[in-house]
Amino acid sequence: MAKQKQAKGFWLGALAGTVAGTVTALLLAPKAGKELRQDIAGGVQDLSEKTVRAVEQCGEKTTEAARQLGDKAVHIADCAKDGAEALISNVRIWRKGRPQLTTEAAGELGQLEDSVEAASRSEELASEGTADTVAAETIEK
Q1: Which one of 34, 51, 81, 95 has the lowest number of neighbouring Cβ atoms within 10 Å?
Q2: What is the pTM of this model?
Q3: How crowded is residue 136: how many other Cβ atoms within 10 Å of its Cβ?
Q4: Are 125 and 64 in contact (CB under 8 A)?
Q5: How many angstroms separate the first and last alpha carbons of the chain?
Q6: pLDDT of 116 strictly over 80
Q7: DSSP state of 29
Q8: Residues 39-52: pLDDT tens digits?
């Protein structure tokens, strides 16, 4: 995270230096007023094109990172769901052999069943194309 801030600061400084240097060079160059205005307009146009390209690249990378995060969150939810289902199955098998289940264990079993149900819901939402919502819900929990 610190490296990203340093890189961002570097690029903002480089951009500011480029703009300042370009404006200074144009203003101090011995040119006619009309020619100087054309040079300034061309420099502004180039700068705006570069800025648009940089913003587009940033948006693409952000979208890709969000998609990857969503995919990983869905995978983690699937693994948790599978583990909880296996545990619930084992407890049910155990319970058949020993019919007396303590109140505390029954409560924990109920919580596990709720967790499995929530994971199933997340999986359903992900299959409907709402991976961002799933990722957000998974991170909150």
Answers
A1: 34
A2: 0.40
A3: 14
A4: no
A5: 23
A6: no
A7: S
A8: 778 888 998 898 88
